[in-house]
């Protein structure tokens, strides 16, 4: 795929992540890796509480190998708390989401998929 087409696909994927959330709230933070020639990993938060108290954290692997139907995702919150999710294939991507249900510390919220060397991170800012 050419660079302009890959960039367009990544843009569409990021827009789809933000608009496909079940919560009607605005996006608090989002980011994707910028390696257009390899795996593209994205992470976003949504919710009324802002980025420090997201309603939902969603991750996507936009161009996984064709034979992958699931993947393990490692989420690391600011302050060191981490957990593991299972992403499932949807619309050609591997997608996982979770509702953390607690206030996060300032720092980076990151997602890394097993089988990819890329990590996507967003900055969490607690305004309280």
Secondary structure blueprint with pairings:
Blueprint: H1 3-19, E1 27-32, E2 41-46, E3 56-61, E4 70-76, E5 82-90, E6 93-98, E7 107-113, E8 119-124
Antiparallel strand pairs: 1-2, 2-3, 3-6, 4-5, 4-7, 5-6, 7-8
Query: Main β-sheet, in a few words?
Result: 8 strands, antiparallel
Helix content: 10-25%
- Provide the residue-averaged pLDDT: 76
What class, by secondary structure content? mainly beta
The first-to-last residue Cα distance is: 45 Å
Order of helices and strands: HEEEEEEEE
Strand order of the largest sheet: 1-2-3-6-5-4-7-8
Tell me what you see in this structure.
- The chain is mainly β and 128 residues long.
- It is 13% helix and 41% strand.
- It contains one helix and eight strands.
- A hairpin with a 5-residue loop joins strand 4 and strand 5.
- The radius of gyration is 14 Å and the shape is globular.
């Amino acid at each position: 795929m050419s660079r302009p087409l890959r960039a367009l696909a990544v843009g569409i994927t990021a827009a789809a992540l933000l608009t496909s959330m079940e919560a009607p709230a605005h996006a608090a933070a989002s980011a994707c890796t910028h390696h257009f020639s390899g795996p593209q990993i994205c992470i976003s938060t949504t919710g009324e509480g802002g980025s420090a108290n997201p309603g939902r954290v969603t991750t996507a692997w936009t161009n996984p190998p064709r034979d992958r139907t699931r993947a393990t995702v490692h989420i690391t919150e600011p302050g060191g708390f981490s957990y593991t999710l299972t992403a499932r294939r949807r619309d050609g991507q591997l997608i996982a989401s979770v509702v953390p249900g607690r206030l996060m510390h300032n720092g980076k919220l990151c997602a890394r998929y097993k089988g990819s060397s890329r990590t996507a991170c967003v900055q969490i800012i607690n305004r309280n």
